[in-house]
Amino acid sequence: MVKVVSCLAADLEMESVDDLTKVIDSIQDSGLSGESVNAERDDDNAVFLCSKCKRPLGDTCGWKGSDPEEHCIMLKAVSTYVTVEKEQVLSKQPSEYGCIFENLLCSGCNSIIGKIYRCTPKQFDFKRDLFCLDVDAVDSYIFGSASQQAVPESEEPVLFENRMALEEEIEKAKAVLAVLQCKLASLETSLLHDKG
């Protein structure tokens, strides 16, 4: 499967572009503004990066959908690292007959990362004037997917609030240990006297 879908699907436990589309569409259909989506659904937000130079190209806040047949994701907005070629091209692919588009370039490495359709037949109107990023040219980072921690939760440092209680427990343990040590010493002494 293509890279961006694989990354997103693995992190969100999905298997296809359709599953990813459903999740992102459900976020946007919930009627939340982009700001609210960020606050309430950080686990579903992602940043799309150029697969060659890793510059950020866009994010799921600009998500409009995907086209699994063409292996592209469609965004209504992209970052300033995406440049649009001025030259318009008439598509020569049979699946896009009659489409006029402009190539999208990553300004960091000048690689072609997708298209923006300017003129389309009726069946492709859903793509017109959207940034269609080729999933083979895009990597992604899912917010909240980082798993490495500087201090594991099981080894959290002792805080000042807990220090007094911890010191009391240590003193109790020392007292019990001292009593046990005295009993052991008296047992050893009585055993030595019984043998002797």
What does this structure look like?
The protein is an alpha+beta fold and 196 residues long. Helix content is 34%, strand content 26%. The chain has a six-stranded antiparallel sheet, with helices on one face. The radius of gyration is 31 Å and the shape is rod-shaped.
What order do the helices and strands come in, and which of them pair?
Layout: H1 3-12, H2 17-29, H3 34-40, E1 46-50, E2 56-59, E3 63-67, E4 72-75, E5 82-90, E6 100-106, E7 112-119, E8 131-134, E9 138-142, H4 160-195
Antiparallel strand pairs: 1-2, 1-9, 3-4, 4-8, 5-6, 6-7, 7-8
The third-level CATH topology of the largest domain is Metal Binding Protein, Guanine Nucleotide Exchange Factor, Chain A
Question: What about the largest sheet?
Answer: 6 strands, antiparallel
- Output mean pLDDT: 77
Counting structural domains, the number is: 2
Which structural traits does this protein have?
single chain; 196 residues; alpha+beta; Metal Binding Protein, Guanine Nucleotide Exchange Factor, Chain A; 2 domains; six-stranded antiparallel β-sheet; three-stranded antiparallel β-sheet; rod-shaped; disordered N terminus
Concise summary:
It contains four helices and nine strands. By secondary structure, it is of the alpha+beta class. It is rod-shaped and about 110 Å long.
